[in-house]
Amino acid sequence: QPRLTLVSIMVLPVCLVPVLVVAVAAQLTPSLTRERGERLAAPRDAPNILLLILDTVRADELSLFGYRRNTTPLLAARAERGTTFTHAFAPSPWTLPSHASMFTGRWPRRLSADWQAALDARYPTIAEFLWQHGYATAGFVANQIYTTRRHGLNRGFAHYDDYDPSVGQLILATGIGRWVASWAWLRRAVGDRDVLTRKPAEAVNAEFLDWLEDRPQGRPFFAFLNYFDAHDPRLPPPPFGRLFGPSAWLGPYRYTAYNVEQTGLYRLDSTGVARDRELYDETLAYLDHSVDALLDSLGASGVLDHTIVIITSDHGEQFGDHGLFHHGNSLYQPLLHVPLVILGPGIPAGRVCDRWISLRDMARTIADLAMPDVAAPFPGNRFTRCWEGPPAPGPDTLLASVTGGFTRIPQEPTSRGSLNGLLVRPYVFVRNTDGTEELYDLETDPAERRNLIQEPEAQGLATALRTAL
Questions:
Q1: Which entry of 129, 135, 250, 395 is 20 to 30 Å from 437 by CA?
Q2: DSSP at 293
Q3: What is the pLDDT of residue 18?
Q4: Alpha-carbon distance 329 to 225, whole Å?
Q5: Is the backbone peptide bond immediately before 334 cis, with ω within 30 degrees of 0?
């Protein structure tokens, strides 16, 4: 096995830079929106829309939802001024299809976005729709693995900040660079490839605020910010790195859950799980601080008075739940149940919505909040049903899915094929392509410990859900 010395670690990026500069230059140029027909003027009273996605954040780890650690006290205080959704579900347990579904209003099964395929132009995105109707549009993303312009999520954004023109990004922005960075022995030596291109929340905030100063005047804006701090490898900065455990900056960082999955060892002792969870909670506290600082800045400038803020996540994370780690490999609740808070003009304050909703309805909701009198090309329901008009009759039918075959780790459900799930309150039904099925009652069994699929009294229900799926 090759041995990596400190000198070779330092020399390798330098040697690669000349080879990569030309190849990556095109990927670092500004992204322009694709025009579709004549651009219209936005209504005079159209609000700004700010979509904040906390990548890899599960709902039950937020103190906003009763978690034992005080991870998000600032968000909890903000939520009192808006509406909190207690049962919001991601349409997929990993980044790209979940974002693609939010942007297009289509279920992931209908989209091209997958492990090795970008979102294509078959369906319009919410950014394209708002740009066409006079909005200034901009995206700022820290997840440089699956939210870049290479993955099709920039469509409709006239300004899109994804890659940083750093040595680390030069290495990872081409096929040869990603191939070299994928070497297992190299990953173990440097910790993890993501460290090369880490963009903290404060940097995402700074990019957005800089753009805000120079944005086209006289137009409302739609801005999308993706924060990557909660994603493994977790590096909470001081003083957050010692809130709930030993400092993350004392000695070499141990990449726990990520390496458990990537190396295929799939064993992690209770101490490792506990420390990884402490680091996760510390990054949540850092995100809480960073989001609050951004909103404070917008409030001081008066922008917040005319801005609807949507705070959510694309999926959660597993810490040994069902014997699983990381994400993208199951349809269990730690990956699907995500936070959702909406603040701003016209949003009821202090309201809690208990209805089961899917983030697939994000595009329809944003279009309705921005321009309620304009017909939008997005299917689905609106989150605003929670406070507008009479309560909707009966439960909604929600879908979730993930494509299998990407992992070969036998403990992971997706190693046996794709998973498709149906959520109809209070039940969740999951079917694997190998024919295995699971059925849980989330109200009596929120941890999904008792699979009802073989229970005699549940056979009629299972048949109905199977047929519906």
A1: 395
A2: H
A3: 46
A4: 25
A5: no
Residue 432 has a CB neighbour count (10 Å cut-off) of: 18
325's tokens: 């780690």
Q: Is the bond leading into 239 cis (omega within 30 degrees of zero)?
A: yes
Using DSSP's 3-state secondary structure scheme, residue 352 falls into strand
Q: How far, rounded to the nearest angstrom, does the alpha carbon of residue 415 sit from its chain's CA centroid?
A: 22
Distance, in Å, from the CA atom of 320 to the CA atom of 326, rounded to the nearest integer, reads 9
DSSP per-residue codes, 9-46: HHHHHHHHHHHHHHHHHGGGSPP-PPP-SPPPPPPTTP
The Cα–Cα gap between 377 and 104 comes to 9
Q: Length of the chain in residues, anyone?
A: 469
Q: Mean pLDDT, consecutive 10-residue segments, the chain of 469 residues? A: 44 47 42 56 92 98 96 97 98 98 97 95 97 96 93 96 68 60 50 62 97 90 97 86 71 45 56 84 97 98 97 96 91 98 97 96 97 94 89 85 84 92 97 95 97 96 95
- Compute φ and ψ for 46, nearest 5 degrees: -65, 130
Tell me phi and psi for residue 181, to 5 degrees.
Answer: -70, -15
C-beta pairs of 256-261 under 8 Å, 24+ apart in sequence: 256/232, 257/232, 257/317, 257/318, 257/319, 257/325, 257/326, 258/192, 258/232, 258/233, 258/326, 259/187, 259/188, 259/192, 260/325, 260/326, 261/325, 261/326, 261/329, 261/407, 261/409, 261/412
Contact 313, 55 (CB under 8 A): yes
Amino acid, single-letter form, for residue 148: T
d(CA 287, CA 414): 30
Structural contact between residues 320 and 367, judged by C-beta atoms closer than 8 angstroms: no
Q: Residue 36: phi, psi to the nearest 5?
A: -130, 95
Query: Taking Cα atoms as reference points, which of 152, 292, 294, 289 lies closest to residue 210?
Result: 294
Distance of alpha carbon 124 from alpha carbon 155, whole angstroms: 9
Q: Are 408 and 415 in contact (CB under 8 A)?
A: yes
The DSSP output letter for 249 is T
Q: To 10 degrees, what angle do helices 362-370 and 95-104 make? A: 40
Dihedral angle of Cα 159, 161, 164, 170, to the nearest 10 degrees: -70
For residue 237, report the phi and psi dihedrals to the nearest 5 degrees.
Answer: -75, 160
- pLDDT confidence of residue 1: 40
Give the long-range contacts of residues 210-218, CB within 8 A, separation 24 or more: 211/138, 211/140, 211/159, 211/161, 212/303, 215/136, 215/138, 216/136
